[in-house]
Every structure is written in C-alpha cells, then in structure tokens.
Amino acid sequence: MKIHAAILTQPNRPFIIEQPDLEDPRPGEVLVRIAATGVCHSDWHLASGATQHPMPVVAGHEGAGVVQALGPGVRGIKTGDHVVLNWAPACGSCFYCHHNQPNLCQTYLDPIWAGTMLDGSTRLKWNGKPLYHWCGLAAFAQYTVVPQQSCVVIRPDVPLNVAALVGCAIATGVGAVIYTANVRPAQSVAVFGCGGVGLSILQGAALAGAGDIIAVDTNPAKANLARQFGATHFLQANDDTVDLIRELTAGRGADHAFEAVGLPHVQETAFAAVRPGGTLTLAGLSRMGSATNLPGSIIARQEKTIKGSYYGSVNPPRDFPMLLDLYMAGKLKLDEMVSHQWTLDQINQAFAQMLTGDVARGLIVF
Ligand SMILES: NC(=O)c1ccc[n+]([C@@H]2O[C@H](COP(=O)([O-])OP(=O)(O)OC[C@H]3O[C@@H](n4cnc5c(N)ncnc54)[C@H](O)[C@@H]3O)[C@@H](O)[C@H]2O)c1
Ligand SMILES: [Zn+2]
Ligand SMILES: [Zn+2]
Question: Whose CA is nearest to atom 8 of ligand 1?
Fold first, then answer.
C-alpha cells in the first residue's frame, strides 16, 4: 500500500514527505498504524551525518500505535493491540540475551544497521528501489511493518501519544539511572543535557530516591522544566559548571554524573564533575568516529567508573509495561514531557525547534 512517510535521501538535506510503498508483513512481522512518534536527537544524528546509515531511509524510532495485521507465525500479538515499538528487537537466544543484556543482542544488530528487516530485505520501496528502515521501525510514517520482537503490547488505557515516549527517551533515561548506574537513595546526581533523555534521567533519579539532583543545560529555559522533573538545582552550562557542582556536593563532586547530550567535551566535563569513587554514565551518543579524552591517570587513582548506557540497559517487554504502570500510578510524568506536537508535514520545523533546546519532548502525531 501507499503510505505517507518522511524520507531522508542524504545527510544534511531536509526530510521530504513522500508516498512510498509498504509491503505486507512477512513471517514474524507485524503491520502497525502509528499514532505518534517522538522526535529524538538520535534521528537528527542521521540527518546530520553524525550516525552513518544506508539512505534513502525512513527514520523515527520512538513510536506507538495499533496492530493492523500479522504476518504468518506471529504469536502473542493480535489485531487491535496497542503497542510501543522497541528499537532493539532481541532474539532471546544469543550470548547477550542469555546474559540479561537484550539491548546488546548480537542477532539484530547486523540487519538493523543495514537498514533492513531481520531477514535482510526491506518492506519499503520508493520509485521501485529499496527504501531503508531506521531501527527496523521507520516510524515517521502512517503505517510501518516491524519485527514481532519490536512490538511490546501495552495496556489499552494509556494514551498512545504519551506511550510513544517510553519507546526511547523514557526507557533510555529512567533505565540509565535504575539499571545502568544503579543510583541508590540519597546519592547525588548531576545530569548534563535536559532534552527528552536528560529529563527522563532526572525523573529516574527522583524515582530512585536520589538526594541532590543537579541539572545542567546550555539553555536557561530548561530550568523550570528540569525542576518539574525532579532537579533540586539547575546550572546553566559554562566554564564554572564543575566548580559549582563540587560546591553543591561538599567539595567532592557528584556520586553520579550522566551525559545526555552526546558531545565529547560535555562527556569530559561530566567526568570531572564525578567524585572519586563515583560513576559517570554516558547516555548521549557522540558522532561516530569521534573520541573523548578521559584521563587514565585520574580514572585509576580516583577509582572513577565510566559506563556506557544503551537503551538504558532495559529489557523492553519487561520494562515498557512497568514504566506505563508507574505513569498510571502518577509516579512517572509523561503528559508533562510532551511540550510540542507537530504533523508529519512539519517534521523539518520539529527538528529545528528541538535543536534550539526549547523542547522537552516533541511528537509527530498522525
Ligand atoms: N544511549 C541511548 O540509547 C540513547 C537513546 C536515545 C537518545 N540518545 C542520545 O541522547 C542524546 C540526547 O538526546 P535527546 O533526544 O534528549 O536530545 P535533545 O536535543 O532533546 O536534548 C539535548 C539537550 O542538551 C542540551 N545541550 C546542548 N549542548 C549542551 C551542553 N554543551 N551542555 C549541556 N547541555 C547541552 C540542549 O539544550 C538540549 O536541552 C543524543 O545524543 C541522543 O542521540 C541515546
Ligand atoms: Zn539475542
Ligand atoms: Zn531515541
């Protein structure tokens, strides 16, 4: 069928709205009508060339929608189910899946980074040629075909537009705190970057019972938002940031720092803001091929730990329903995270606004 989708033809070009063809789901695949897709900085990394990917591609990886049709052999999902899309369609049987690290599953990585479905082919075609799927989701489109492992069935009483946020920002941010970093009650936390991911880290820190929660952003307009999501202090990023964080933490530095921007110099500042014996967790994704200068002499002498966090170390089928239960119980703010909504036609404006730093999280709503 013909669908409306936002296509990137090459880096540093705008998204174009076109009507490519979407084939029926093959074995193990599911056709989903998208309700909303979040505008995440990771999509922008494709548009800017910071993340390399086959093109033309339909981006969008923070989606939620309603199941329309099933390919042969799909189990545990039925037409009409509400689903949040999972961008790490783990196989359940590789080394990483067996070691409770489904976010690192080795089986999905090759086809997903080739821009295809798990069988190595695309369901999308444009002008008769393959059109690639970002993360196997291609969610900046009215309809999508995804691997069944990408469909996490959710309770139907959660509005689908806010449910979409759980598919990336919320899972990544809350998961980074409670799983990757394992923040304990009363610990101090510094969070660099207050976009969708950083604000979710703040929420995770509040949920974990952290003590001082210090938010840092270049944009002073993020101060009120950061406080709304759990920050006890806000600092506008500048040359004194590390000194100010030390002042707020008895001169030591924070027990935990999180980088949620994706810039090497911010990763280096966040490292300096961690106390001896503390932990730096990197959630921001820096440009492919970039390098970060972290001093080995200090890492060893001060026993600082540096962790990477991919998808918040979550297990989506286990954690998406849990996060939505927290939302329904009033313990996780999702409605308040949605500061902007746009139509698919407005997608270039959506990313331009995200880049100003004024957006908490924005959604493309279908
Ligand atoms: N690890 C993962 O699995 C994962 C998942 C999703 C997103 N990400 C990455 O997380 C990062 C953040 O994504 P997002 O969607 O929240 O982005 P965003 O654009 O919504 O937010 C980024 C925020 O960082 C602020 N900022 C910019 N420069 C800064 C600086 N020097 N110091 C402090 N703050 C600064 C901006 O003002 C903005 O508020 C991106 O790199 C994205 O690719 C990683
Ligand atoms: Zn696996
Ligand atoms: Zn994302």
Answer: 284
